[in-house]
Amino acid sequence: MANEETRLTAPPTKAKRKRRWWVIVIDIVLIVIFALALAVSANVIYLTSVYGEPFYVNGASMYPTLNKNGYKLEDGEYVPLSWADAHNGEGDIVDYGWAKAGEKGNWRESLSRYDIVITYFESDYSDPDNLVLRDSASLKIKRVVGMPGETVTLEYDPSNAAWGKTTITYPDGGMEVLPNLYDESDFPPLSDGYVYEGLDRNRLGTWTLGEDEYFLIGDNRGANHSEDSRSRSVGPVKADYIQGKAYLLTGMRELSVSDEGAYSPEFRFQYMLFPWDYVRLDRWL
């Protein structure tokens, strides 16, 4: 009988398929998007835990500190916001940041001159003594100029027509002229030739504050640009009306307006600042 020859052979192997370059690119893009989304979410959690309350800015009362780099939607195109844009609307791009409010930290105890605060006015309350808000109440954002017990004197100063001269008289009789943060160069003429009118001379005077009152002014001190403590309808603001202290600007948001007229700041990635670019709002003096 003839010998049978047995041969052992390995199973055939499949040739490796090379991944196409565009598949690799898509994978990388998806990983980057996921990582960014995770980072943004983690950052929001951090900001919420440390500061507590987000805010957005509507209007130019705090220009040029706030909303200087924003945009308004005009005839389907974006144009830069200016000191004359009293109100913002659908599609406008406005500043967005974080404040400490409520029981978050000791912001009330640390409140000092030139801090930026988020507040209600007395007119926002139907029952001011019990802090009952009206349905139409709206938060404002202003700068602290006068502290409890002080006397604030606001005068016109030709050397700085935009901000004037602000003098503080302390309870012990001492006096100090406050430094000006801005001047006329910070309020340039508009494209249509409209020129900044300067400090509102119809709201100058002297105000003495109670032991629980603050004097709040918007940085845009021109006529009709900021309703604040200079106005008879507002006056000094009680401490209980102040809701928070602004600490950070973390970017800008796009405003959307509901059918009921409610504003909502919508996240847009291109207007987000990275943490190392955040703008501190608690360092002025």
UniProtKB/TrEMBL annotation:
What GO MF terms are annotated?
Answer: serine-type endopeptidase activity; signal peptidase activity
- Give the primary localization class: membrane
> Could you tell me where this protein is found in the cell?
Cell membrane; Membrane
Q: Does the keyword Membrane apply?
A: yes
Peptidase S26 domain sequence ranges: 29-247
State if rRNA-binding is listed as a keyword.
no
The text of the family note is: Belongs to the peptidase S26 family.
Protein's recorded name: Signal peptidase I
This chain's source organism reads Candidatus Alloenteromonas pullistercoris
Recorded name of the encoding gene: lepB
